[in-house]
Design a protein that fits this description.
By secondary structure, the protein is mainly alpha-helical. It is built from nine helices and no strands. The chain is elongated, with a radius of gyration of 19 Å.
Amino acid sequence: MIPFLYGMMLFIEFISQYSRVAGYFIDKNAIAYSLQNTTFTLTRFFSVLLMPLIGFMVDKNYQPSIFLLCVIISFYFVFILGSLVFFLRRRICYFYIGFIEKYISGYGLIKSFFKSFHLNKNYDISELNHYKIDIKYFFISVFIYAIHALGVFVTFYFALISPENKIMITQTSGIINAFATLLLTFKIDPALSVAIEKRTNFISSFMSIFYARLFVFFFVAPFIFFIIYKVFQ
């Protein structure tokens, strides 16, 4: 259940980000950003279910090797779902374009959602296939999202192998996530907003960040977690 819930939480987050891309193409940035946040709130449903299950593994003193396997599967499941979003990025973008247009036209949120499955391909979004990777954005994003991906799992792993301090240790997961969120809020989001407003290099910046997230879940996060497991087993 943990890999599934974790994967679906990130899957929805990956999809929601393309709302801003759709807004960029039709010059409706404000409502696109609002719609992204609306979609993102759906991840809370999976997050609420996920955290007690991770805590359950700690309380029941699962073997560290089982916890490691659970975490690695979670990371690679997210990578698979993220890759799926990448390959369907044009369809997702067209969906959000339709969603935004329907919503602006006066349809309600639910009605706009269902009517948007009839994709409106009147807009040129070929830029999604022609971009250059921005190395600066890529490496900054790798650093930030690695913290975000590892924060909860690492702290709960230390709680598992040090049960006498598990309450104190698990509380630090919120601090680590807050730190990663602050970095996202003060570095990544403003940079994307500036790129949108200037209409320069937005797609390159966005896709660089997206590639970074896939790289984190494919290599960085599993590798670091495995090293931590080997050092502290």
